[in-house]
Design a protein that fits this description.
This protein is of the alpha+beta class. The protein has eight helices and seven strands, in the order ααβαβαβαββαααββ. Strands 1, 2, 3, 4, 5, 6 and 7 form a seven-stranded antiparallel β-sheet that branches.
Length: about 250
């Protein structure tokens, strides 16, 4: 059977009367294309993304996520977390498709950076101090079993929207001793301790933070949250901070 000229290229790969396997493959590919386009829209509209995972509370065993009760509990926890951040972050209801999202951000990123059963949230910021790095956002619990934990933060660099403080990160680190240049947990904590006192004084007085103090506050929060392993994507479009140092796949 000859396909009409305007039939989508995707469908031309399949017979006129496809079998069950062909339909299943077509369905998976259509869904994957839809999800990919959705992620592309969000990464263009927003300049920050957060990756979250659900972890058991300290001292508790991981609950079987396949049970109906646990699925309902998990859905309720994500719903409540979504409500807690309100309009500050656009959280996608469905679990993150790790492979598809990684292809959009940078295919060279290590797959090990992305946790199972993750969710993604998007935010637009004009300054680093607008990032949701307070403990109430990084670790949220309104459940007797599990906690929502932030484990990755991405800041888009190829944007026309200026982000206050972003261009001060490297100069600030260069002014400190060489031991602080690697941005590991210990070095960030030292920077945070040195600058916390002066930063708190300006915050409490209501004075607008300078770009330099915005960066100090940003590094302080990163140190306390342990999201301290930085990497630049191979396309130089995203600056990413994670809780894992498995970043050797990125350039």
């Amino acid at each position: 059977m000859k396909h009409p000229w305007d039939l989508p290229n995707l469908l031309k790969r399949y017979p006129a009367i496809p079998g069950k396997k062909s339909f299943a493959k077509l369905e998976r590919q259509v869904i994957a294309n839809f999800i990919s386009k959705e992620y592309q829209i969000y990464t263009r509209e927003y300049n920050v993304f957060y990756l979250y995972r659900q972890v058991p509370l300290s001292g508790r065993n991981i609950v079987n996520s396949d049970t109906t009760t646990e699925k309902a509990s998990s859905q309720l926890l994500w719903k409540r977390y979504n409500e807690s951040v309100g309009s500050l972050v656009r959280i996608i209801d469905k679990p993150l498709q790790n492979r598809i999202f990684r292809q959009i951000i940078d295919p060279k990123l290590s797959a090990d950076l992305f946790k199972r059963n993750s969710h993604v949230g998007f935010q637009s910021i004009a300054s680093l101090d607008q990032l949701l790095l307070d403990d109430s956002f990084l670790r949220y619990n309104n459940d007797t079993v599990n906690t929502v934990e932030t484990y990755m933060l991405g800041i888009r660099l190829n944007t026309n929207k200026y982000i206050s403080g972003l261009d001060e990160i490297e100069p600030l680190l260069e002014e400190t001793s060489n031991m602080y240049k690697n941005l590991d947990y210990k070095s960030l904590l030292e920077i945070a301790k040195k600058n916390r006192k002066s930063s708190q004084g300006k915050e409490n007085s209501g004075v607008t933070l300078s770009n330099r103090n915005v960066v100090k506050k940003f590094l302080d929060r990163l140190a306390l949250s342990k999201i301290v392993y930085p990497l630049l994507t191979s396309n130089s479009q995203w600056l990413i901070f994670t809780t894992s140092n498995k970043n050797n796949s990125a350039v």
